[in-house]
Amino acid sequence: MELNVSPSTLRRDLRELEKHGKITLLHGGGVQLNRKSTELSISAKLDLNKEAKNKIALKACSFIQDGDVIFIDPSSTTLQMIPYLVNRNITVITNGIYHINQLASHQIPCIMIGGNIKQSTSSCIGPLAESELKTLNFNKSFIGANGFSIKAGITNHDINENTIKRIAIEKSKDTYFLLDSSKYNQVTMIKVASLTEGAIITEKNIPDLNDYSNIIIA
User: Which fold has domain 42-217?
Assistant: First the structure.
């Protein structure tokens, strides 16, 4: 089948697809389709969409008020919030190991939720974490996820992490989902929440979501 496009146009389109994580360009001219069936480690996620995540994190912190007790889950985007929390009169609760280390090093008042350690995301999950989290209440929670779409809602890879997210949402007065635009129309295994269950902070306008009043552009 002929596509009737110039080589320069094809190369440009392929580079754009690679930029958005849809394909990987191989040496020698090959193309590999990227399938997001497995979850990346948090260290790998930290290198993705850094500028977008930083903008989202900064915007998220603008909703925090003095005296707040907040929950931040162990996502790579919520991790970017921590430098902006220095010298704030708040308490931060997290089940993220990366996160608690950063919070402690910045001398931010914090509480660690313990439990079974999930190595890939450096998070604490399982019955102990769930039981402990249920005893607490938050003014605000800041939640990451692996994908979001109109049809599937906000989705995540891990059912055990999802349980933690659901408890945090239910125990919070206000919930903010921190989702960069590259995750739009990505669907993973389990639904975390509907698109309207909290505010969604993303870094740029997504035309499909213009009718949703809870979308916040960083």
Answer: Rossmann fold (3.40.50)
Cα 86 from Cα 100, distance rounded (Å): 14
Cα-based torsion angle of the residue sequence 158, 160, 163, 165 in order, rounded to the nearest 10 degrees: -60
Q: How far apart are the first and last CA of the chain?
A: 43
- pTM for this predicted structure: 0.81
What is the DSSP-derived secondary structure letter of residue 157? Answer: S
**What are the pLDDT digits (tens) for 20-64?**
555 545 444 544 444 444 566 666 677 778 999 999 999 999 999
Q: Which residues pair with 178 in a beta bridge?
A: 201
Q: Which residues face 190 on adjacent strands?
A: 156
Q: What's the gap between Cα 174 and its chain centre?
A: 16
User: Where, residue-wise, is CATH 3.40.50.1360 in the chain?
Assistant: 42-217
